[in-house]
Amino acid sequence: MRRLYRKKALSLVKELDAFPKVPESYVETTATGGTVSLIAFTAMALLAFFEFFVYRDTWMKYEYEVDKDFSSKLRINIDITVAMKCQHVGADILDLAETMITSNGIQYEPVIFELTPQQKLWHRTLLLIQNRLREEHSLQEVLYKSVLKGAPTALPPREGTASEPLSACRIHGHVYVNKVAGNFHITVGKPIHHPRGHAHIAAFVSHDTYNFSHRIDHLSFGEEIPGIINPLDGTEKITSNHNEMFQYFITVVPTKLHTSKVSADTHQFSVTERETAWQADHLLHECSIKRTLRLQGAKERVINHAAGSHGVSGIFMKYDTSSLMVTVSEQHMPLWQFLVRLCGIIGGIFSTTGMIHGFVGFCFDIVCCRFKLGPYKPREVVLPDAHVNNRAAPLLTDNHVQE
User: Fold this and answer.
1) How far is CA 168 from CA 114, 192, 379, in A?
2) Please, how many CA atoms are within 13 Å of residue 73, restricted to the half-sphere of its CB?
3) How far is residue 99 from each of residues 24, 69, 192, 194, 195, measured CA to CA in Å?
4) Rounded to two decimals, what is the model's pTM?
5) CA distance to 35, 95, 358, 360, 370, per residue, from 366 (Å)
6) Which of 1, 52, 56, 149 is exposed most, by the fewest CB atoms within 10 A?
7) DSSP characters for 9-37?
8) End-to-end C-alpha distance for the chain, whole angstroms
9) Cα–Cα separations (whole angstroms), residue 283 to 65, 252, 293, 294, 317
10) What phi and psi values does residue 44 have, to the nearest 5 degrees?
11) Pairing mode, strands 314-321 and 235-237
C-alpha cells in the first residue's frame, strides 16, 4: 500500500511539472541558435560582473531633523598662523551672553610665516581640492567614504633648523564653548578678564608692527576627523596695511557621521560674506539642496577713523549654530536585493534573446517563402529522357507514355 501511495504521489508531482523535458532526439540545433546563445551568455556575464561592482559600492544618505541638544558643549579646533610675534597678539572667544571663554586650550608657537617648498606643494594641493569641492559637491561624498584612508590634511612639519627669525605666531589647539552664537577673534594684545567687559592689553605694541596677514591651516567644529577637508582649510590672506580687519561669518550645522570606517558627531559649516548678504541666503539654500555646506568668503575692511570706518584691527570669526541637524550615513545594497537584480538580469536576457531569435526566424521564413529562397526553393527533378523539370512536376507513368 505504501508503494502504491508513493507511485500515486510521484505521478501527481510529475503532472505538476512546469518544466517538461524534451528528448534530445527531438531537439534540433542550428548555427543561428548557437550564435544567439553565445551572445546571451556573454551579455549575462558582463552585466553580472558590473552588477557586482554596484553591489560593492556605497552611497551617502542625508537626513535632516531638529537639533534638540542645546546643553552640550561645542568644540572649536583652531590652527592659524598670524604674521606677528606671539607676544603681540592674543586670541579668545566671547559668546552672545558676553561670556568670555577661557583660552587655556590654545597654544602660541613662534614660527616662520613663509612655507617651505614641501609645505607650498601641500598648500597648492589643498587649494586645488577646495576649488574642486566648490564646483563638484559630490566630491564631499568621496571624502566621507574615504575618511581615514586618504593623505593627512594637516600641514607637514618644517624640515631642518630654521635660520630665519621667528616673526610669526602659530595659534593652535581647541576650546569648548556653549552652543550659542559667539565671536572668536585674534587681535593685538593679550586678553584679560575684566568685570565690566572685555579688553586686550595693546598699549605697549607699536602700531608699525601690526600685520594681520594670516593663513588658516585648519578650522573645524566638533570632533576632529582626519581626512575631512573643511571650507576654510588652506585660506591665506596677505595684506600690507597695518589697519586691516578680517571678518568671517560662519554658520555651524551639527552633523552625525556614520560610515563603515568611522562614527562621529561633528559639525559642518559655511562661510559667507557680509557685503553680499543677498547672495548668502541663496548660497545656503543651494547648499542645503545639494546636501553639502561648502562656501568660502571673507570680508576685508581697512580701519580708517577719519573716513568713518571704525573697528579694531584683527581677525574676527563670528559663528552661529543652526537649529537643524544633519545625519550622514553610508548605505549599502542588501544581499537579497543584489540576488533579485542578478536573477532579473539572467532571466530577462534569456527571455529577450529567445523572443528576438523567434521573431527573426519568423521574418526569415516569410522572406524566404515570398522569394523562394532557402528551404522554399523549388527542387530540380531529373526525368528519364534527361530533361530537367524545374517546376517539380510529378513523374509520368508508363501508361501515360503509351497514350
Assistant:
1) 9, 22, 103
2) 9
3) 91, 20, 13, 11, 11
4) 0.65
5) 21, 87, 12, 10, 6
6) 1
7) HHHHHHHT-SSPPPPGGG----HHHHHHH
8) 75
9) 20, 15, 9, 9, 19
10) -60, -45
11) unpaired
Of 223, 203, 218, which is closest to residue 73 (Cα–Cα)?
223
**Cα 347 from Cα 224, distance rounded (Å):** 49
Overall residue count recorded for the chain in this entry: 403
Under a CB-based contact definition with an 8 Å cutoff, are residues 59 and 141 in contact?
A: yes
**Residue 84 is placed in which grid cell?**
606677528
Distance CA 299, CA 305 (A): 18
Looking at residue 358, the DSSP 8-state letter turns out to be: H
Per-residue pLDDT tens digits for 59-118: 888 888 998 887 888 899 999 999 998 888 988 888 877 666 666 788 999 998 888 888
In this prediction, residue 402 carries a pLDDT of 44
Q: Based on the number of CB atoms within 10 Å of its own CB, is 198 exposed (0-12), middle (13-18) or buried (19 or more)? A: middle
Decide: 313 and 189 in contact? Cβ < 8 Å: no
Judge contact between 109 and 82, C-beta under 8 A: no
Rounded Cα gap, residues 292 and 62, in angstroms: 9
Grid coordinates of 257: 557621521
